[in-house]
Amino acid sequence: MTATSDRALTVEQLAPPGPQLDPAAVQRTYELDRAHVFHSWSAQGALTPMVVTQARGSWVWDGEGRPLLDLSSQLVNTNVGHQHPAVVRGIQEQAARLCTIAPQHAVDVRSEAARLVTEHAPDGLSKVFFTNAGAEAIENAVRMARLHTGRRKVLSRYRSYHGNTQTAIHLTGDPRRWPNDSGAEGIVHFFGPYLYRSAFHAQTEEEECARALEHLEQVIQLEGPATIAALVLETVPGTAGIMVPPPGYLAGVRELCDRHGIVWIADEVMCGFGRTGAWFGVDHWGATPDLITFAKGVNSGYVPLGGVIISDAIAETFRERPFPGGLTYSGHPLACGSAVATITAMQDEGVIEHAARIGSELLGPGLRELAERHPVVGEVRGLGVFWALELVRDRTTREPLVPYNASGPAAQVTADLVAACKRRGVLPAVNMNRLHVVPPCTIADDEVRLGLAILDDALGEIEAAHGIGRAH
Ligand code: PLP
Q: Which residue segments constitute the domains of the chain, with CATH numbers given?
C-alpha cells in the first residue's frame, strides 16, 4: 500500500510471481467444471468459465498463467485482497484449534467476532445474529422486523439487489427477480434517488433528494403506514449502479421510519467493511438504522459469513419471546476466526483510511479524467473503492451503451469491453451499461495507476470499434 510513481508501471513490473503452470491440470479443471459444476444465473450451455490458477493481493492468474489486476474484487468481496497472510493464518490457527461448534454454545472466537463487528457499528446496535451469507442476513432481518412490529409489508427500492433466497429475491429491484417473482412476500418497490436517470425530473441533488423523499412518503401513505414492517435499503446501492445517496436522503428515511414505526434495515452486504472508505456506509451520513445486514467484506469472503447487527430495541423484543430462526452454522468458528483476523488486520493496517484516500486522491480524480477523454462515459460516481462509470451511446441523450438487461448480440459492446480489459491485464466488473471499478481496499497506488491506464486504452478501443463519440 505504498506510492512509488506517478506514471503507470506495466503489468509485468507490478504483478507478483505467477503460479507454476500445469496445462494438463488446467484442462482437467475446465473439463470437470463443464461436466459437473452448475453455475449461478446462467444458461449452462454457453458458459466458458475462466480457470483461475492463483490469486494474491489485487491479482488473479488465469489458466495460461497470465496475471489480471482484479478490479472486481470477485463479487465485490475481497476487501483485504486475495490471500491476506494474517487472515489465512487466522483461519489455519482456528482450524487447528476448533473447526466447528453448534450455535447454542458460547465460544471465544464467535464472542470476539461479535464484539468486533458491533464495535464498528453505530451506537445502539450491540448484538449480532450470524448467518452464512448476505441473503440469509436479509431473510432474518426481515423476519425480525415483522415480528418486532407485528406488520407484514416491506418496502425496497427498484435498482437494488438483496440476494437469492425467497424474501431477498422478492426484495431485489433488478431483473434477477423477474423469473423468480411469485408476486408474493408483501413487498412493494419504490424509486430511490438517482439523479443521472431521475425518476422525478430533478436537475439537482437537492431536488432529487426532496422529491425522492416525497415519493417515498406517498408510497408509505398509500400502502398504509400501519401495514409496513420494514424498509430495506442498500446504503449505497451496489450491483444496481453505485448510486451514492444525496446529503439528507438517509436522514429523511430515518425520519419517515420513525414517524410511522417502520424498521429501517440498511443492507451493507456490499458497501460495508471498508468499501466506501468507512467501516459502514451509513457512517458517511451519521445515520443509524435499526438493523444492518452484512457479509462479503466482514472477512473478505474467505469463509462464507454474513449477519444482522441488531438495535437494542429490537433485541429487547426477543428477550422473553423466542426468535423463531436459526442455522446449523450460525457463528461458525472458521468463519468467525476469519472475521476476527480480517477486522483486526483492517484496524492494524489502516485499511479503511487507505480505501478512503485511494478514492479521494487517485481513483475518483483518475476516473473523472477518463470521463473527460472518453465520450462513452456519461457519469462517474462513487466513493472509497466503490465506483461506477455509466456508459452511454450519446452523452446528450444519455442513451445507455446497451439496453437495460440486454444479453447476447445486444450486449456485444460491453462483452468487447470486458475482453479489451482482460487482454491488457485487468479483470473488470461490468453490469448492464456500467463499468464498476471496485478493487480491494488494499490496492496499491501503482496498481490504481495501472488499472486506470488499462481502462483508458480499453475504453478507447471500444469507442473506435463501435463508432462511439464520432460526429454523426
Ligand atoms: N445484499 C447486497 C447489497 C448484495 O450486494 C448481495 C450480494 O451481492 C446480497 C445482499 C446477497 O449476498 P449473498 O450473495 O452473500 O447471499
A: 11-70+351-466 (3.90.1150.10), 85-349 (3.40.640.10)
